[in-house]
Design a protein that fits this description.
This protein has helices at 20-31, 43-52, 71-85, 108-118, 120-136, 165-184, 202-207, 210-218, 228-239, and strands spanning 11-15, 35-40, 62-65, 90-93, 139-144, 189-196, 250-253. The chain is α/β, with parallel strands linked by helices. The protein has one domain (11-253): NAD(P)-binding Rossmann-like Domain (Rossmann fold), CATH 3.40.50. The chain has a seven-stranded parallel sheet with strand order 3-2-1-4-5-6-7, sandwiched between helices. Strand 2, helix 2 (43-52) and strand 3 (62-65) form a beta-alpha-beta unit. Helix 4 (108-118) runs parallel beside helix 6 and helix 5 (120-136) runs parallel beside helix 6. Keywords: Oxidoreductase. Belongs to the short-chain dehydrogenases/reductases (SDR) family. GO terms for molecular function: oxidoreductase activity, acting on the CH-OH group of donors, NAD or NADP as acceptor; quinone binding.
Length: 260
C-alpha cells in the first residue's frame, strides 16, 4: 500500500486493464486507496488484474468486459459500476488497438475499425460515465494519447497514402480532451490527457522492432524508454486532488522525445 493514499475512498475505472500500461494504472490506483474496476475486451484478463490488486479497508476491486467500439457496452459497464459502488470518481481511457495494428492496410473497413476503437472509444466510455460524475458534481477523466500523434514524417516516399490510423486516432484524442474539458468544467469534472513516449510493454515489443526502439530511445534526452509505472504515476497525479486545478492539458511522459 502506498503511504499517501491519495485516492482513498475513490471509485476508478481503467479500460484496457488486462495488461501493459492499463494494468499498471489499476495497480497504482489501488495502491493509493481506490476501489478499481478493471475493464478490458479480454474479460478473463481484466478479472485476473482485479484479483491481483492490493486491497485494504473498504476497497473492493472488480474485473469485467467492455468493448469500447460499442456505446451499449460502455453504458452497460458504467451502469454496473454505479449499481455496485454508487458513484464513479475517475476514468482512465487507456484501451486502444496498438500492438497488432496493420499499417499497410488502408482500406476503409480497417480504418473504421481502428478509429472506432482508438478515437471514438474514449468518447463512448466518457459519455457513459459523465452522467454519474455530473450528478455528484465531481470527476476526473484521463485520456491516453501517444507521442505518435506528433510524429508526422511517417515516410518521405510512400508507395500510396498510408493509413495513419494510430497516429491519427491519438491526435484526435488530444483534441477530444480539450473539447470535453471545456464543457465539463462547470460540473467540477477535469479532463486531461497523458501522451506516453516509447514505453516498454509486451505490446510495444510486438509493435516496434528492437532496432527501431533502440534508435528512438537513443534520440531522447534521457536516452531510454519509459516504464509503465512512470505513465501510471502521471495518471495518479491527474486523478488526485493535487491536480484539481488542471484541465484540458496534455502531459507528455516521454523522456523529452517531443517537447511541444
Amino acid at each position: 500500500m502506498g503511504a499517501a493514499q491519495r485516492l482513498a475512498g475513490k471509485i476508478a475505472i481503467v479500460t484496457g486493464a488486462a495488461g501493459g500500461i492499463g494494468k499498471e494504472h489499476a495497480k497504482r490506483f489501488a495502491d493509493e486507496g481506490a476501489s478499481v474496476v478493471a475493464l478490458d475486451i479480454d474479460e478473463q484478463g481484466a478479472e485476473s488484474t482485479a484479483k491481483e490488486l492490493p486491497a485494504g479497508g473498504d476497497q473492493r476491486h472488480l474485473g469485467g468486459r467492455v468493448d469500447i467500439s460499442s456505446l451499449a457496452s460502455c453504458q452497460d459497464a458504467a451502469d454496473r459500476v454505479v449499481a455496485e459502488f454508487g458513484r464513479i470518481d475517475a476514468l482512465v481511457n487507456n484501451a486502444a488497438i496498438y500492438a497488432n495494428i496493420d499499417h499497410k492496410r488502408a482500406d476503409e473497413e480497417y480504418l473504421d475499425q481502428v478509429l472506432s476503437v482508438n478515437m471514438l472509444g474514449p468518447w463512448r466510455m466518457s459519455k457513459a460515465v459523465v452522467p454519474a460524475m455530473m450528478s455528484q458534481n465531481s470527476g476526473r477523466i484521463i485520456n491516453q494519447s501517444s507521442d505518435a500523434a506528433l510524429m508526422y514524417h511517417v515516410s518521405r516516399k510512400p508507395e500510396t497514402l498510408p493509413n495513419f490510423a494510430y497516429a491519427w486516432s491519438k491526435y484526435s484524442v488530444n483534441g477530444l480532451t480539450k473539447f470535453m474539458a471545456g464543457v465539463l468544467g462547470g460540473y467540477n469534472i477535469t479532463v486531461n490527457c497523458i501522451s506516453p513516449g516509447m514505453t516498454m510493454t509486451e505490446a510495444t515489443q510486438q509493435a516496434v522492432s528492437p532496432r527501431m526502439a533502440e534508435r528512438l530511445n537513443a534520440s531522447t534526452p534521457l536516452g531510454r524508454a519509459m516504464e509503465p509505472q512512470e505513465i501510471a504515476a502521471a495518471a495518479l497525479f491527474l486523478a488526485s486532488d493535487d491536480a484539481k486545478g488542471i484541465t484540458g492539458q496534455i502531459l507528455y511522459v516521454n523522456g523529452g522525445a517531443v517537447m511541444p
